Amino acid sequence: MDFFNTGGETLSIGMTLPVNHTDLDAEVHIGDTRTPVREQTAQGLEVVLPPLPAGLHRVSVSISGVHIRAPGVDLHIQYLTEVFSIQPCCGSLLGEWL
Fold this sequence. Notes:
Elements: E1 10-14, E2 26-30, E3 33-35, E4 37-41, E5 44-48, E6 55-63, E7 66-68, E8 76-79, E9 92-93, E10 96-97
Antiparallel strand pairs: 1-5, 2-3, 2-6, 4-5, 6-7, 6-8, 9-10
């Protein structure tokens, strides 16, 4: 059974951008998924997290086609799935007895 995070949350990526150049062609990928950039500011980028399965996903940023990297830094985001309840609480679940 695969659980997917529904996405839609905001991720802030801090970086110094030139104050007068906040309309740069910025692209952010989480895993293999390109994420929409919600806002570009002098302090960095805000992106909308995509729906992805639970696990560790690589984050990559490029501005005007140049990949942004820092020595010794490998960006990842971890998606977690928390199950608060399962119904039915007793009896048959997927053909098995609990």
